[in-house]
């Protein structure tokens, strides 16, 4: 006879910080993590996107956080006594080849997509070590990185390749101290950011058809599908997994 006792969530008792939690994959992950028992610190540089989340069960608190501002990150870390999961999900997707690239966009993309994760981890890892605890770091990279060259994504690919290296270096340095670090590497995912890029193109219908046409499954991914991979990596089910790049792209990179 099945037990009537409620089953604990997969992140029960864990405190998780998520950057870029206001929309897309970050938001889907924040809601899923909370549903699975975590106490979530949901952060985003646009606090308006977090307004409807702050009173939801499992959302410990919402915070405005600009990951390009090291002082903001350090100050947030000072308010955290315990951390079990760090999900660096904030990111931007600039387009263009190397011929369209400019230094301002290069700097911004590297700051948000790579340096922000570096600063967040640098600020929070000492809390884990002080508590002699464990922690799963999940970083949102992309197949568009050193894993796959993608047309008109020069700066984006470089920034996400840098994040792959950030993750693997952290994994190597702290593998014996209870800290795991892994990359999620999606292909094209239906998010507000992606929809914005499609709709801002000269021919949105053609842009949408082109995106779908290159997908071997005939569709793009969903934010929830990526969130479930993040949940696995954040959970103790992945306790023997570190330093890895998890491709979730519908077979695009095959």
UniProtKB/TrEMBL annotation:
TM region(s), chain numbering: none
EC number(s) on file: 1.1.1.104, 1.1.1.30
Pfam families noted in UniProt: adh_short_C2
Keywords: NAD, Oxidoreductase
Pathway assigned in UniProt: Amino-acid metabolism; Siderophore biosynthesis
Reaction(s) the record says it catalyses: (R)-3-hydroxybutanoate + NAD(+) = acetoacetate + NADH + H(+)
InterPro entries, sorted: Sc_DH/Rdtase_CS (IPR020904), SDR_DHRS6-like (IPR051122), SDR_fam (IPR002347)
Gene Ontology CC entries for this record: cytoplasm
GO biological process: siderophore biosynthetic process
Gene Ontology terms for molecular function: 3-hydroxybutyrate dehydrogenase activity; 4-oxoproline reductase activity
Keyword Cell cycle among UniProt keywords: no
Family: Belongs to the short-chain dehydrogenases/reductases (SDR) family.
Protein name as it appears in the record: Dehydrogenase/reductase SDR family member 6
């Amino acid at each position: 006879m099945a037990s009537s006792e409620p089953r604990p969530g997969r992140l029960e008792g864990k405190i998780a910080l998520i950057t870029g939690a206001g929309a897309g994959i970050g938001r889907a992950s924040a809601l899923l993590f909370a549903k699975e028992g975590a106490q979530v610190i949901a952060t985003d540089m646009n606090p308006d996107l977090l307004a409807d989340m702050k009173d939801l069960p499992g959302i410990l608190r919402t915070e405005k956080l600009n990951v390009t501002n090291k002082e903001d990150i350090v100050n947030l870390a000072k308010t955290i006594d315990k951390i079990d999961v760090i999900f660096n999900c904030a990111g931007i997707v600039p387009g263009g080849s190397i011929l369209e690239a400019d230094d301002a966009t290069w700097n911004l993309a590297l700051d948000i997509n790579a340096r922000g994760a570096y600063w967040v981890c640098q600020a929070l890892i000492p809390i884990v070590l002080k508590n002699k605890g464990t922690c799963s770091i999940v970083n949102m990279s992309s197949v568009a990185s050193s894993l796959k060259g993608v047309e008109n994504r020069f700066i984006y690919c470089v920034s996400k390749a840098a994040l792959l290296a950030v993750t693997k270096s952290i994994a190597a340095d702290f593998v014996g101290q209870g800290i795991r670090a892994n990359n999620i590497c999606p292909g094209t995912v239906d998010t507000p950011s992606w929809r914005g890029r499609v709709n801002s193109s000269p021919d949105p219908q053609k842009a949408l058809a082109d995106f779908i046409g290159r997908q071997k499954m005939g569709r793009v991914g969903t934010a929830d599908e990526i969130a479930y991979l993040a949940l696995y990596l954040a959970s103790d089910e992945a306790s023997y997994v570190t330093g890895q790049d998890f491709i979730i792209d519908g077979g695009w990179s095959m």
